[in-house]
Design a protein that fits this description.
Length: 264
Amino acid sequence: MPRTAIVRKLKGLEEFVDVTAVSPLMAEKGWAFKKAADHEVPGSEDDPLYGYSNIREFYFKVNPEYDGRFTVPLLWDKKTESIVNNESAEIIRMFNTAFNEQLPADKAKLDLYPKELQKEIDGINEWVYDTVNNGVYKTGFATTQTAYEANIGPLFASLDRLEGILKGKDYLVGNTLTEADVRLFTTIVRFDPVYHGHFKCNYGQIRHNYPEINRWMKNLYWNNATFRDTTNFEHIKIHYYWSHKQINPTGIVPLGPKPNIEPL
C-alpha cells in the first residue's frame, strides 16, 4: 500500500479514496484484517464494508472461482462492488490524474508523471523495478546459492548507479518530485531495517555505503510529511520478520537498526 498511500496523500484524495490498513501479520490465508490476525498490531483495522476477515474474500466476491494471488493494494469500487485494480504502478497513475477536475488547483497541478519527463521516468522505472524493487525479493527469496548470487550483484550495481544519478540532486528525474521517486522510496526506506538482514542484501547499508541515496531518502522523509506519515516501521518489520517463516522460522523481530532512519 505505501506507494499508493503516498500518491493518495500527495494529491489530496482523502475525500475520494478511503484506506483500510490490513494487519502486517500475513498468515496461511494471506493478508488479514485486524479481527483475524494472529494478534493485534496497532494501526491495523477491520474491514468496514462487509466485515471480512481476509483480503482474499474481496477476490472471491468478484469471482468465486478465483485461483490467483490475493495481493494488496486493492482498489475497490463500492458502487459496483468490484476490483478496479490491484497493481500499485497502475493505481498511482490513476491517482495522478483521475480526480484533477475535482481537486483544488494546487493539488490538480501536481503532476508526478509529466509528459516531458515520461520517457526518462519510464526508463528508470524499468531497471529500478527489475533490479531494486523486485531485486531485493529475488535475492531474499532465493533458495539456492547460485540464485542468490545471481541477484545480489545486479541489485547493488543498480544502487551504485542510483548513487551516481542522485549526486547533488534532490530528485531522480529533472528537478521535481515524480513517480520514480515514489516507487524507489518505498524500497530504500525498508532497506536497512529489513532487506539488509532479513533478505541477506548485505553488501552494504544505505546509511553507511550510499550517502547520496541516504540524503535523498532522508530529505523526502523528514521534509515531506506525506512520506513520513505513510511509513510505519513497526508494520514493515513485523510483516517481513514474522510472516516469512521459511526465512525466519522463529518469527523474532529485531529491534534495530537504531534509528530506523537517520535524522537530517
